[in-house]
């Protein structure tokens, strides 16, 4: 009788999302709410956020994700959901930041961080300037 093999993987990714044309998008109290909304969106994708920070025109996100969630999905799909949620709560401000009806740039950065120590990555993201 043959027994099945199982591989346990711990996958982490560093995702950076930028507002369209690097226009100002985040200032207090939105960063705190943005982080809360990001956590809600990540839960829908079965992704565990580890660290979140950014500046007025971009955000950094370190996540733990299951192998079934593609890195390309992490880079793009949550941005649309996140933008709609922000639009509902901060409609007037978000509309001022829209270019062509979009809050986020069409491109994103997402990289697997397989060999890097998580403490180093968490420290890097934590040190990014929090929008004020």
From TrEMBL:
Domain Transposase IS200-like: 8-128
GO MF: DNA binding; transposase activity
Name of a matching Pfam family: Y1_Tnp
Parts of the chain that traverse the membrane: none
SUPFAM superfamilies, A to Z: Transposase IS200-like (SSF143422)
InterPro entries noted in UniProt: Transposase_17 (IPR002686), Transposase_17_sf (IPR036515)
BP-aspect Gene Ontology terms: DNA transposition
PANTHER family from the UniProt entry: TRANSPOSASE FOR INSERTION SEQUENCE ELEMENT IS200
Alphabetical list of NCBIfam families matching this protein: transpos_IS200
Name of the protein in its database record: Putative transposase
């Amino acid at each position: 009788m043959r027994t099945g093999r199982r591989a346990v993987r711990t996958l982490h990714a560093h995702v950076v999302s930028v507002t369209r044309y690097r226009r100002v998008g985040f200032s207090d109290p939105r960063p705190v709410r943005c982080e809360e909304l990001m956590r809600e969106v990540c839960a829908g994708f079965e992704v565990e956020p580890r660290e979140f920070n950014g500046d007025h025109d971009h955000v950094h996100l370190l996540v733990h994700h299951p192998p079934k969630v593609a890195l390309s999905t992490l880079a793009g799909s949550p941005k649309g959901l996140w933008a709609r949620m922000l639009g509902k709560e901060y409609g007037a401000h978000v509309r001022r930041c829209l270019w062509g009806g979009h809050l986020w740039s069409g491109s994103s950065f997402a990289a697997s961080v397989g060999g890097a120590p998580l403490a180093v990555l968490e420290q890097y993201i934590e040190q990014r300037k929090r929008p004020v």
